[in-house]
Amino acid sequence: MKKICVVLAVFILVCFSVVDVSAVSDNVTHDLENSLGLEQLYDSLSSDAKKSLERMGVYGFGKDTLESVSFQSVLAEILRIAGSEGVGIFSLSGLIIAVMLLYGAFEGLGDSICSMSMKKVLSVSSSLLISCALLVPATEVIKDATEMITAAADFMLAYIPIMFMVMISCSSPLSASGYYAMMTGLSQVIAQLSAKFIAPMLNVFLGVSVAGSIVPELKITGILNTFSKSVKWILSFSFTIFSALLGFKTLISTSVDNVSARAVRYTMSSFVPVVGAALSEAYKTVEGSVRILKNGIGVFVIFAIGAVFLPIVIKLLLWLLTLNMLKSFGEVVNLTLPCSLLSGVSSVLGVILAIILCVAALFIISTALIITVGGGVS
Q1: 156-176: per-residue pLDDT in tens?
Q2: Which of 176, 267, 307, 319 is the most exposed place for a label (fewest CB within 10 A)?
Q3: Which of 69, 355, 357 is closest to 234 using CA atoms?
């Protein structure tokens, strides 16, 4: 009779342990959310990025992050940004077309009105007018782009310690340490390069392209093309190397972390008397809940990075589309110098677009990798 009572007591204890696993898991994840300071991470975003996320339907960090997001909401936000940014760009294109038509009209009159020296003065004057119309907004675009890159890097620096703690909480200490070291270094390097190298370099080459279009004897088109191709090759090479290193390091670290987690669960199940199996399952359930929180934070960060970069990417695409259309128009009416100027400005803006897309891809892919590799609980 005494043995039967002991068995019943153990059975009841195990049942209560299993029933309470969900409640314990919810309490653990709730306490973890409060201790991580997720509100501070959200506050580190700009007001425009917050409003953009809200319009797309992204409101939180948990498992319900994507419930309100739809293709229609994302497309509507893209069209809204394109509409607001396109007004100024297309109005400026009208001014440039007017200057090009005026230049073409005078050049078409030939030697009957304009001498050769007057034609050169007219050509330089038209290029100066177009450069005056383009330089101020182009430098503002470069400034906005570098500020967006710095803002994204600062946001990542605020997010990386949070993901580090979450990964440790879901039994991935080795993966967490590798991810923390690589992404912190990357974010700091990107922030410093954006502030001290990218903006000055692009402004210099923008000025060089304008000078080359006004004074064609300089013959600097080859330098600009070499610069553009070199930057894009360096970005592609750096992106490939960093992605490969992070991917291989994460795969190896995740394998070691999974073995360690299984060892912990096996130890609980085998060496804890009576309730070892229940404790092992509870540990597994809590670990799975923390992984859900980790995935929710990661998905939010991916959308946040997209919201930070989306306005400047759309703005640059509209600029490139407009400049290429103006260049095609200039080629139709045979305007050499204005077309050279438009080509140079387009090349510089293409470089900054390539830099932004590379930085955004690095942040998004690294975040996606860390929430997908080793995301299951076995």
Answers
A1: 888 888 888 887 777 677 777
A2: 267
A3: 355
